[in-house]
Each structure stands twice: as C-alpha cells, then as structure tokens.
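Follow-up to my earlier ticket, as requested here are the two runs.
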Amino acid sequence: MTEHTDGNGIVVGVDGSAASMAALRWAAEQATVLHADLVAVHAWEPAANGHAPYAPMPAGPTAAQEHEQATQVLAATVRDALGPRTGDTVLRVVLEGPPARVLLQQARGARLLALGRKAHGTFGMPSVGPVGRECLRHATVPVVTVPVTDRLQESVETVNSPSLAGSRASWDA
C-alpha cells in the first residue's frame, strides 16, 4: 500500500457522512492556508467480511462493484463538500481494508489526519467512534476531529442511496 503524502499532505477520512464532509471542508481550508496537498481517503471492506468460512456466501456485489461503489461515495462526497470544480486539487484514494488501518497507513508522513465526528456524544462528551479512537491511539501524526454542527447535519444530504450504502464504512470518527 502506498502513502500519498510527502510530509506536506493533509489526509482526511471520508465516508459520505455529514461529519466527514465537515472534516473535508476543514481540511481543504487548512490545505489552502498551509499550501499543503489534500488527500481524501475512503476505505471499504468486502461485504463478505465477517461471515464464518463455512457459511454460504450471500448473493451480493462483486469486489469490483464494491470498489466502484466506494469510488462513487468518495467522488460524491468531495463534490458535495467542496463543489463541482475541485479538479486536481484533491487527491482521491479508495482502498480496500479496515478504515482505521487504511487511514493510519495513508497518514504516515503527513502533516495531519482529519476525521469528522458527531457534535455531541453521551453526557455532552465529544463523540469519537471506533475508527477515530483507533486513529487517536496509533497515529504517528497529529489527529484532528472536526465536529459536524447540528445545523450542518440537518442541511447536508449524505451519500446514502441504496446503491451506495453497501460500501459506506461506519466510521463514527
């Protein structure tokens, strides 16, 4: 697996949620200010993961179809968060694997890793999900968690169409 940063990149985890859009917007602003590369990363895992080896395989999309769905999730999220004219300003990376592992590998050598999170968790504490916790525990670069505001969460349409929902990793970062 290749890392796409040369010490000047800002890596952001993207899963199609309102929180990841908030992180993407924040990371894009920081990349502009710091004259850094912006690397949007979407990790996906095959739908068959988690099944016992002796269980019959469910009829579902092929790995190529899942990869295409993941690519569509990333493209739609970048377009929705940053607008249609992002061109080559955002490096888009779609990789198969557990989201935390993929993000940590892609962030190795970057300036920082940005992740979205819900505005409120239990008892008013920040809501950092399992992927976010794993990244905070093991990252070799600074990790920023960007909250989605309640107002933004209500107004943003997440990428949740039935054809794309299967590739979304629930990052809850």
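Run two:
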Amino acid sequence: MSKYFDPQERAQELRDFKDFLAPLKGKAGQLMQALHHAQDTYGFIPPEIQELISTELKIPMAEVYGVITFYSRFTEIPKGKTQISVCMGTACYVKGAVKVLEEIQMVTGVKAGHTSEDGRVSVSTTRCLGACSMAPVMTVGHEVHGRLLPKDVIELLKHLKYDEQAKLEAEAFLAGEGK
C-alpha cells in the first residue's frame, strides 16, 4: 500500500474511478485516458490505482507501469504545492544545469524526483523546456527562470523557507482541502 494513499479512506473515490473505467474497456486509447483521469483526480497514480486500471481494462501491469514511467506527465508520488523543475536538455546541461540542480536540492532539502515530507516542494528534472537560448533554465510553478547560476537559486527559493502560511496551505492541500 502507498504511504500517500489509503484505499479504505478513499473507497467512494475508488468506486467512482471504477465507474469511469467501465465505458473505456476495449476502446482505443483506454490506458492513456485512464491514466490522465487518475493523474487529474488524485494528483499522482498510486499502486492501488495502477492495479485497478490493470484489472478493469485487462492490461498487463507491466504495460501500465511502463506508460506511467515513460511519460513525465504521470507520477507515482504526490507533487508538492510548489513544483520546481530543472531542464537537463543539452543546452542547459552544458551551461551548468547540474550545478543549479545541486543548489536547489541543498536549499530545499529535496532530491530530484521527490517531494518534501510536508508536501510543500517537489523537485524534478525535465528534458527540455523550450528555452534553450536562456540556458540553464528552471521552473518554479509556472514561472520560467533562465540564465541561472547556482547562487541565483537561493534568492529564487527563499520564500520556501520559514513560511508558516505556505506550510499551512501545503498541509491543507495534501489533506484534500486544496483540490
């Protein structure tokens, strides 16, 4: 069982999701539709939902998992209230994205591919943000920041430290109040 998802507490949501899957059975694109719906509904795709999709749509679990891990849109862990992503495309990588990522991980205490325990911050990498001329590039939420040096990260992310209101909002969001 996922530490982020309790099937007993979400029994009604699971029944609703199963109802959503019923008309998809055997249709073209059924897996992608199911995964998009799960990601939008839960904010991530826990193992319990993966198994339900596999069982209901009669798709091997390996295929479900393979699609989830192939597409960056899907995630198996909840995203934090603030999502930070660093481009690791060629231009960004060559111009120092690794150093920027290391600084982000140090400032936030969150490794790439993870979410902070309090749900406030997620850190990830991506292949390209389409802003190569501004390399290296990162996003904080929907804001794009380019031509970064590691020292820029502290200023960009200082709002994430010691912000009691942000902590309360993140806790409410994770508890399902902010959806």
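The only thing I checked on run two: Residues 30-42 form the longest helix (13 residues). Let me know what else you need.
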